[in-house]
Amino acid sequence: MTTKVYPAGANGTVTAPPSKSMTQRAIAAALLAKGETVLLNPSFCKDSLAALGMIRALGAEIEKKDVSLNIRGGLRAVSTRLHCGESGLAMRMFSPIAALLPREVEFTGEGSLPKRPVNMIEEALLQLGAGFRSQGGFLPFVIQGPVSGGKASIDGSLSSQLLTGLLMALPLAASDSVIHVRNLKSKPYVSMTLQLLSDFGIGIENQNFEVFKISGNQKYNPRTYLIEGDWSGAAFLLVAGAVSGNVVVEGLSAYSLQSDVAILDALLLAGAQPVISENRIEIAKAELKAFKFDATECPDLFPPLAALAASCQGTTEIAGVERLIHKESNRALAITGELHKSGIEAGTTGDAMWIKGGKANGGSSDSHNDHRIAMMSAVLALNAKNPVEITQAECVEKSYPGFYDDFRKLGVAVEFKEDGL
Asked: Which CA distances in Å does 87 have to 83, 153, 194, 226, 370?
């Protein structure tokens, strides 16, 4: 599908989408809790639906309602094949969980996921006594459990998602475990995991995000759990307000543990003035200036930060480029390439991306089948000389199915055309 977004001022009030990261973690916790868990305000994006399919294959019973999920947990192998869709979190988080089972479980995926290396999963599970075989370090792979606890040392420089899976699985192991982590990035995501585990009755000793001590034979408590609004998706809405109009985003907490709440810091550095109230953020168009920002701990902010920088006077520098390689696309190349196509100068130097603000031309934009690149291009269109046509625009369904609908609610003209028509 191709989507055409017209230049416009974004004005109005929308509700932040539910957090897909918290939804997927809560879905996993609901599987591991014997009894019924009710998830309120869940995300029904593609990544969340992939996680639901995986827990169904692992023994959960699911009742899907309009604004909630009722999940009866209990880990057992109904199927020996888990399909991750295109979700890196689902692949890395459910691998240690599946390794609790005393049998082989095969993992498959689609889109860009089979191109993402899985060596880190293999190294961790082998240390904990599981078997593992893959297609040269990529999907599909097979895990042979069970893991019973023990010690493992992992590298956290590429992603914290495997650590999340280990923290969720090992409390159910027969023995205690100790996980040593080197060079951990995205610590806020680990804090999110630890908070959710505590909410479900699981205790873990965290020693400076370097050593995690996990007692075995713990139990998850089923409960009713409210999914908070998603700062990753809302960041695009807030940038839209800062560069072109006046936007109110409801359903957001400025006290969230989500790493992408840092968009507020970046907006302030750029000269915007977000008004923070309980459960809502308001932001209006401002005279924006170039800024320096370190996105190492929040790499998903690169696309909305790039859209923000394109409307700033001067040259912005964003650190953390090394975190962008193994995403749905090589986001460093995708971001700078799409900016260039629209007439915005951009590039990378070492671990930093630089973007020189200016007036975007508009025209054709390739989403690279990456949901965040598609959303970046839509925000770029607001101040462009011409409309922006985004190819494979439906990829936003991975995390934010209602994105274009919300843009329309803000008064932005959006047209859709099926590819080939």
From this structure: 10, 24, 21, 22, 12
Interatomic CA distance for residues 387 and 285, integer angstroms: 20
pLDDT, tens digit, 9 for 90 and up, residues 242-274: 999 999 999 999 999 999 999 999 999 999 999
What number is the average pLDDT over the span 107-131?
95
Distance CA 237, CA 241 (A): 6
What tens digit of pLDDT does each residue of 158-208 get?
889 999 999 999 999 999 999 999 999 889 999 999 999 999 999 999 999
**Residue 283, beta-bridge partner list:** 247
The span from the CA of 204 to the CA of 39, in Å, is: 23
In which element (H, E) is residue 37 found? strand 35-40
Question: Which residues are bridge partners to 277 per DSSP?
Answer: 280
Nearest alpha-carbon partner for 40 in 67, 7, 5: 67
Determine the number of helices (DSSP H) and then strands (DSSP E) in the chain. 12, 24
Return the residue matching tokens 């868990």. 37
Beta carbons of 354 and 348 less than 8 angstroms apart? yes
| Closest to 221 measured CA to CA, from 200, 237, 204, 239 | 200
Residue pair 178/153 in contact by the 8 Å Cβ criterion: no
Q: What is the pTM of this model?
A: 0.95
Q: What is the CA radius of gyration of the chain?
A: 21
Based on the residue annotation, tell me whether 300 is a catalytic residue of this protein: yes
Which among 47, 230, 260, 300 is annotated as catalytic? Answer: 300
The amino acid present at 228, given as its one-letter code, is E
327 pLDDT higher than 70? no
The full DSSP string for 323-342 is GGSSSSS-HHHHHHHHHHHT
